[in-house]
Amino acid sequence: MNSSEPVSLAAASHWDQRYRQGTDSWELGRPAPPLERFLRTHSLAPHPPGQVLVPGCGRGHEVALLEELGFAAIGLDFSGEALAEARGLHGADRASLRWLQADLFDRQALEAAGLAPASLSGIVEHTCFCAIDPARRDDYIATACRLLAPGGWLLGLF
Ligand SMILES: C[S@@+](CC[C@H](N)C(=O)[O-])C[C@H]1O[C@@H](n2cnc3c(N)ncnc32)[C@H](O)[C@@H]1O
Q1: Which residue, judged by its Cα, is nearest atom 13 of ligand 1?
Q2: Residue 41, phi-psi category: left (phi > 0), alpha (psi -120 to 50), beta (remainder)
Q3: For 48-157, which CATH class?
Q4: How far is the CA of 94 from the centre of ligand 1 (A)?
Q5: CA-CA 20 to 30 A from 110: which of 31, 74, 78, 101?
Q6: Whose CA is nearest to atom 14 of ligand 1?
Q7: How far is the CA of 150 from the centre of ligand 1 (A)?
Q8: What is the helix (H) or strand (E) element at residue 101, kind and residue range?
Q9: Where in the chain are the domains?
Q10: Distance from C-alpha of 46 to C-alpha of 41, rounded to nearest angstrom
């Protein structure tokens, strides 16, 4: 890609390229420490069971943490490169963990994969909201509201 070309954050190919080129400077190699600390120790931390989604999960460190804590964890990303790495690091789909390649804003694809309205107990947000086109932030909120069951929660690090 020529550096003068506009970058489309909405294109999976942009993110695939970043993972391939290693220009993924957000990568921590582990779950974000404040999220992990909160989930493991805070008195307000949500408890399993429940189905929890990590949108834009990248290499899936938060997804693996949620599974370890006892949730049914779903890592969603539209980058095939990211999910290939997530599978390599944390293993293939199983009862308690699922990788889903889809655009967060593709309602049909989400529903075909079982993410129906009110199908989630929780959502863990880590650097997906800031990675989408700012014009789509209301869509992100609408998607989260649609997917969460009544009483559902969103835990995010912003
Ligand atoms: C900055 S990275 C963060 C990855 C991971 N959450 C982390 O903290 O390491 C943003 C991720 O969101 C994904 N992403 C961006 N927009 C998306 C969308 N509309 N649907 C699904 N994934 C998306 C990208 O492919 C990328 O893996």
Answers
A1: 56
A2: alpha
A3: alpha beta
A4: 22
A5: 31
A6: 56
A7: 26
A8: strand 97-101
A9: 48-157
A10: 10
